[in-house]
Amino acid sequence: RVDRISQLIQEYNIEKIIHINGRDNCLPDYLSRYPREQDDDLFDIDYGIGSKSATVDSPSTNPNLLNAMLLRPRKNKTVSVKATTNVDAFVSTDPDTTLVKDTNVSNTKPIPHKFSSNYFDTNKLQQEQARDPNVQNIIRRLQQKPNNLPFIFKDHLLRKTIPISPHSQIKREVIYLPSSMIKSLLYACHNDPMTGGHFSLDRTYHKIKNLYWWPKMKLSIFQHIKSCLACQQYNVSRQKRHGQLNPIPPPEGPFLLIGIDYCGPLKTTPRENQYVLVITDYFTRHITAIALPNCTAETTAQALFNEYFCTYGIPSTILSDQGPHFQNQLMQNIHKLIGYNHIYSTPYHPQTNGIVERFNSTFISQISKLQDTEDNNWDEYLQAVVFAYNSGVHKTTKYSPYELLYGRQPRLPIHPRPSHFTFYKPNDYFTQLQKSLRIYHRAAKYNIIHQQAMNKARYDKNRPDPHYHIGTKVLTRIYGIRGKLDPKFSPIPKTIISVNHPIYIVQDPQTNMKSQVHVADLRPIYID
Known about the structure:
With 528 residues, the chain is α+β, with helices and mostly antiparallel strands. The protein contains 14 helices and 14 strands. The two termini are 44 Å apart.
């Protein structure tokens, strides 16, 4: 991708490249939305691209103003329209706003259509009850046996008599709402900013129950709120994230399955190192950490080959995230040439490669305690911290990574100096080493499986694990920089096209783009 961009810009004579913050860089999007006003203060910002153009048609020569969009940097939020132009309406991109006719709208705000009109008057209710067959059926039954039904016909309206409390003899009278008006009332009591506010089932139900009644009222309210798209996009779930824990089974031996990940960028050291490539063996939990100046694909490939493959051999499988330093043409060619499998974790789901991620958090805190803050020489302590980790007992395996790898405990400076040496025959040492490693590996594998079972039981407790099917409409969680008022889930429902629980492939209906999503980042959409 970088090479294609480099070839593209060679066609132009570029003097300098200026970085513009994304929130202020409205110009490219603005230029795609023709026409514009001739004196547009968008060009008042010095982007370093020259003067304003004087050849763009004014709004008076092009009446198609509804296709134009007013874009401003966030610091220029004031909209002003000159009275000399024949713009007689304030144009807004919000479909829920009206056009306010005024020749001077510098202080005029659009009037939203989100407030419900009050048309639940007596005449309207009488007309709709007269058309409702269920209401008319109850009225006829009341005329025959008025004392056998919990209804009364009063002031030309059918009303329901409901006890004010479970054990009270006092009853209140509420209007029987015709089925044709249920949708409008639910919209007013839930979607309306003033009378609803998109609150919960209980708040909406208690707001309605003292005024109106209809059969299966609470179920209707529940279904309406459940199918509210805005609530599904913005509401915060108070339960645990969906999806149970699926531990990776331990491999049969060391260096068969490894996980790799980058930690950084950190402060640049005098040796110009800024990143740490962390490599973890999934069986022994042995850590290899390599300080690097950058995290490009070429640097990653060289570090893996020189510092790891040439020391510990070629692994059977490598697990990494989908970062560009791991998922690129160079790494694909290497794994085909050398002969190992490279699998990638689900986007925005670091738990897939959790062992590496867990060490990263440990490594950062330990290296911060040891580095010289003035010299910023954290890379000088990197290998010492890694050795201290590898020589310590791991909580899961109950052995140190060093012991599982070499069949013995490492000798440390705290050990007493030996007074004599005992020489064994090479065959004797090899036989003893084989026995020790066989015992260590068998016990370590049992401990890993036992610890994974305990972790799974604790993680899965009271955690929902929904299963979706192909064709289900879902919303996907939005990651990245997001404001407090921005939606938490995608505004456009997506369709599940492939299922491999807990991983799903979803497709955007507008762009046809496919993405891999974990079940924890899906929210099913309900359509009423």
